[in-house]
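[stage:ingest] chain + small molecule (flavin mononucleotide)
[stage:ingest] validated
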Amino acid sequence: MQPAYYENFDEIKKKIWLMLDDAISNRASEFRIPTFICGDQSDFDGRIVVLRKSDQHNNTVQFHSDIRSDKIEKLKKNPKAAMLFYDKEEKIQVRLKIECVVNHNNDITKESWSKTQHISRKCYLVDNGPGSESEIPTSGLKPELDNFDYTKEQSEEGYKNFTVIQCKIKFIEWLYLAAKGHRRARFDLENNKDTWLVP
Ligand SMILES: Cc1cc2nc3c(=O)[nH]c(=O)nc-3n(C[C@H](O)[C@H](O)[C@H](O)COP(=O)(O)O)c2cc1C
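[stage:predict] done
[stage:export] tokens:
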């Protein structure tokens, strides 16, 4: 039997948001770590990020990053980007075309920072930003930080590097693999237009 979302736009959208919402709290979800792709015409690349928020009402998703990461400069020049998800069990691929807003030192970062775990603040405490060259193999952290030997108060130091990337979704593309026949659909969220595509 085919699932309700096999050939029904509304059911597909429902399924997509269920999967995105679940990924925020479910560490086992394959949608929790999408590939985020950005750049310009001559230099673009992808990297894994952790999905931190999904909001169907506003058509947004968001993730966290370090202000010193190369992708921040790229996003300032070109906020258009993409996000790619695949769930092997569900046989569902979701591709998002998005426009990004980089939040730094504002109410949005304040709220997200307050919810970060003491231990996960470690990645914002590296002396030099992600992608900096080093003469030796390194985590970029001082030894005491590597050993989680720091107080919550000391971890506040990382806030100055903390960014929240808000991604406004413009298009969603859905691909469902099924023995009976794959199905593919595109959702234009700005124009509220749903289209079937040949997979
Ligand atoms: C499982 C996993 C989760 C990651 N989560 C994030 C994240 O939420 N934000 C982020 O900026 N980088 C994250 N990274 C690291 C990025 O993939 C990338 O290495 C880093 O952001 C530096 O690359 P860039 O500056 O070119 O983006 C994660 C990597 C892995 C493997």
